Amino acid sequence: MFSFAHQMEHGDSSESFSNTGGSEMGSSYIMESGFFIKSFVATIFVAALVTIGLLFITLLIALIVMLQSCESRSSGVIQLRKISDDYSFCKVFALHAELNALEADEFPKNCKTLAIQYVKEGQYLRDLNLTMSVADDYYFSLAPEKDGLDVVLIDVDDVLSNPCTHQLNNRLGQHEENELTEEAKHLKHMLVLGLYKKLQASGWSLILITRKPEKQWNAIQESLIVAGYEGWSSLIMRSDDEMQMENWEYFSRRREHLQNQGFRITSVISSQLDALTGPCLGKRNFKLANPIFYRLKEQTESILLLQ
Questions:
Q1: What CATH number has the domain bearing residue 258?
Q2: Would you say residue 48 has pLDDT above 80?
Q3: 17-42: pLDDT as tens digits
């Protein structure tokens, strides 16, 4: 009995030991499995963090690039708006300056810069060509009477150079401005001369007028011939008693005198408003483009110069 009972107890103990051992092995497996699952999750979590970090950096870089692009674009828009505003202001100021005969030092510096760009970038030439095109169309629709009394009055100060002023600009060191002044005058000279030749061929009487005094007659006549202006009907220059007159008054007086002589003024062609102001103007007058002007006083006269 004892042996059997002892064997039974021993069996129970063995079975109990086996159950205990099996239980310990199972717990170890669970712990090991749990540790493996946690490592995998951690790996995925770290990878997700890295991916999110990369996405965040990429997004941050994209935002910085976009902000820089927007800032650059905004800066460009502001700059273009400023240039446009400056151009509008200078265009109005140029008209104001001509109406009031302002001096050179009263012209804003930024307008002088725009005037240089206006000539250098070709807009001045385009504006001149457009004016000439309008004038061509107008004269093409007309025919002068055979009596020779239909006249076109042309302001030749627009196309005649002034050596004294050329030297003055060089003394002031305004080399670039002086070159552009000469270029502007050359462009205007070529286009006005072309129109002059067409009008002459169509039978119009051409009267040239200048602000210069009569005592310079020989020099002005020679300059006109050299420049290609030949065959004109008359050259009007200031008499001594007209030297103290305002330019607009001088032009008005001379136009009135022409009308009193029986001439029919068809047009006045000039870039300066003083020649296009007052009574006795033509039926259709033409204002040539004028980028900027300076009013320089000499001993005997005030001369308007194109810049």
A1: 3.40.50.1000
A2: no
A3: 444 444 444 444 444 444 444 566 66
Q: How far is CA 202 from CA 4, 142, 228, 262, 285, in A?
A: 152, 10, 17, 20, 18
CA distance 254 to 19: 135
| Tens digit of each residue's pLDDT (9 = 90 or more) over 180-230 | 667 777 888 889 999 999 999 999 999 999 999 999 999 999 999 998 999
Domain boundary residue, one of 100, 135, 152: 100
Q: Give strand pairing partners of 154.
A: 208, 269
Same domain (yes/no): 154, 295: yes
Instruction: Look up residue 262 and give its DSSP letter.
Output: T
CB–CB of 296/104 below 8 Å?
Answer: yes
Burial code (b: 16+ CB inside 10 Å, e: under 16) for 271-293 equals: bbbbbbbbebbbeebbebbbbbb
Do residues 141 and 204 share a domain? yes
Q: Is 76 in the same domain as 135?
A: no
